[in-house]
Amino acid sequence: MRAWRLFRMVEADSALTGLGEEIVGGRWNSPGRPVVYAAGNLSLAVLEILANVDGVTLLRNGYCYCTLDFPEEIVGRVSIEELPQDWRMPQHPCLKEVGDRWLAEGRTAVLEVPSAVVPIEMNYLLNPEHEAYAIVAAGEAVRFEFDGRLVQCK
């Protein structure tokens, strides 16, 4: 399986450690728990960034992406049917509970979850503290520039 990680160039050294999400938390994890967020394709990764970052920041900060390859055997899944109807609401506590429980149980290194931006597409949470995380193969970081028209939409 392949996922795509889009990150700021200044965070390149820690982009696969989960450090940022450990500090501030994310949609699917509480602060204090490192998680690497990735998307099922590069276009979704772009939309996820656009949904969470203002236009000035997009243009000011340089971005890179890399691919993450991993076997399906290390992936757990959460389906939309398992979530409450209002799960797309920002900061829904149910999602942090699901992610924190997944991290605590440690059954898989990767968790496939629906995207709140495009619910029929998938995002991937990777647990850098799981022993199977070592078999996740990261591609080389490639510079990414946002199309200026996307920033105008913000």
Automatic annotation (TrEMBL):
Classification via Pfam families: RES
InterPro entries with a match to the protein in the record: RES_dom (IPR014914)
Domain RES: 15-139
Protein name: RES domain protein
Organism of this sequence: Desulfocurvibacter africanus subsp. africanus str. Walvis Bay
Source species taxonomy: Bacteria, Pseudomonadati, Thermodesulfobacteriota, Desulfovibrionia, Desulfovibrionales
